[in-house]
């Protein structure tokens, strides 16, 4: 086997890079909705989720949605996704303004979980399909490199 084939094994495209992070978020929202009252566990998971959502949305907007906004095919979807990032931010603010042992807290957390899961599924099933057509293979790889570099710095 020629040597260069082996070198391709570690190369990731932007979809694989984003998907990895989505799995972390799915796990965290699931855990969060199973926590109770004003506990250390709830605080810890909420802080982790907040951080993961923020670093992902920042890097994703910069290294995925900005290039997609420049293409007619994907501009609408990109705008829609960025608007959903803002919706999630607003819910996080509401959660921060609510006492953790208030009955409303879990209701808001479940709402956040619902929006996050919907958002990730929509990205993976609809946005990735269109982005697959709009971006070149070279772009898919170089965006993953830029995205991963930013995530490594902020995590
Ligand atoms: Fe997103
Ligand atoms: Fe995402």
From TrEMBL:
A Pfam family reported for this protein in Swiss-Prot or TrEMBL: Hemerythrin
Residue ranges annotated for the Hemerythrin-like domain, each copy included: 14-131
Domain of life (superkingdom): Bacteria
InterPro entries to which the protein is assigned, alphabetical: Hemerythrin-like
CDD domains, per database record: Hr-like
Name of the protein: Hemerythrin HHE cation binding domain-containing protein
């Amino acid at each position: 086997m020629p040597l260069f084939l082996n070198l391709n094994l570690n190369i990731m495209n932007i979809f694989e890079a984003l998907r990895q992070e989505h799995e972390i978020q799915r796990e965290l929202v699931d855990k969060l909705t199973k926590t109770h009252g004003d506990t250390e566990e709830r605080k810890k998971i909420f802080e982790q989720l907040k951080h993961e959502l923020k670093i992902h949305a920042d890097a994703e907007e910069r290294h995925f949605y900005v290039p997609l906004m420049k293409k007619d095919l994907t501009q609408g979807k990109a705008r829609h996704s960025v608007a959903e990032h803002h919706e999630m931010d607003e819910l996080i603010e509401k959660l921060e303004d609510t006492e953790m042992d208030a009955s409303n807290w879990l209701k808001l957390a479940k709402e956040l979980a619902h929006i996050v899961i919907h958002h990730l599924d929509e990205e993976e099933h609809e946005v990735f399909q269109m982005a697959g057509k709009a971006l070149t293979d070279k772009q898919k790889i170089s965006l993953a490199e830029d995205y991963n570099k930013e995530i490594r710095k902020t995590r």
